[in-house]
Design a protein that fits this description.
By secondary structure, the protein is α/β, with parallel strands linked by helices. The chain has a single domain (4-127), classed as Rossmann fold, CATH 3.40.50. Helix content is 44%, strand content 18%. The protein has six helices and five strands. The chain has a five-stranded parallel sheet with strand order 2-1-3-4-5, with helices on both faces. Strand 4 (86-90), helix 5 (95-103) and strand 5 form a beta-alpha-beta unit. Helix 1 packs across helix 6 and helix 2 runs parallel beside helix 3 (66-75).
């Protein structure tokens, strides 16, 4: 039995229903607590209110892009939010997108179509503090 108080909280920012369900199911099976934001505006709010241990961020979302979310965190005054590891998970695989994401503070960049759920979990564990 997993102790819920010790679960790492992951904010999944993903608007594609199938991807959101798949990622959530796999991460929860691995013992993580997952909260979901289906658009960039909700993502920005949940980052502030939920204070997740890690953020999985899609770049192409309704209302606000992942780039805008990253930029808001970097330009904001909350130093604690800037310390949250952010892994971009996108179908955009161009070097310019990867470079821009990392420049804006992402610790890693995953192309959804090129990564398995097992590899996703490994990346999450790699970037989570205290795992």
């Amino acid at each position: 039995m997993v102790n819920i108080e010790n679960q790492s909280k992951i904010l999944l920012c993903e608007d594609e229903e199938f991807v959101a369900r798949s990622y959530t199911r796999k991460l929860e099976l691995e013992g993580f607590a997952v909260v979901l934001a289906k658009n960039g505006v909700i993502a920005t709010e949940m980052i502030k209110t939920e204070k997740p241990d890690l953020i999985l961020l899609d770049l192409l979302m309704p209302l606000k892009t992942g780039f805008e979310v990253l930029r808001e965190i970097q330009e904001g005054d909350d130093e604690e939010l800037k310390k949250i590891p952010i892994i971009v998970s996108s179908n955009l695989g161009q070097n310019t997108d990867i470079e821009e994401s990392k420049k804006l503070g992402a610790v890693d960049y995953l192309v959804k179509s090129n990564i398995s759920l097992k590899e996703l979990v490994e990346k999450v564990k790699q970037h989570l503090p205290n795992t």
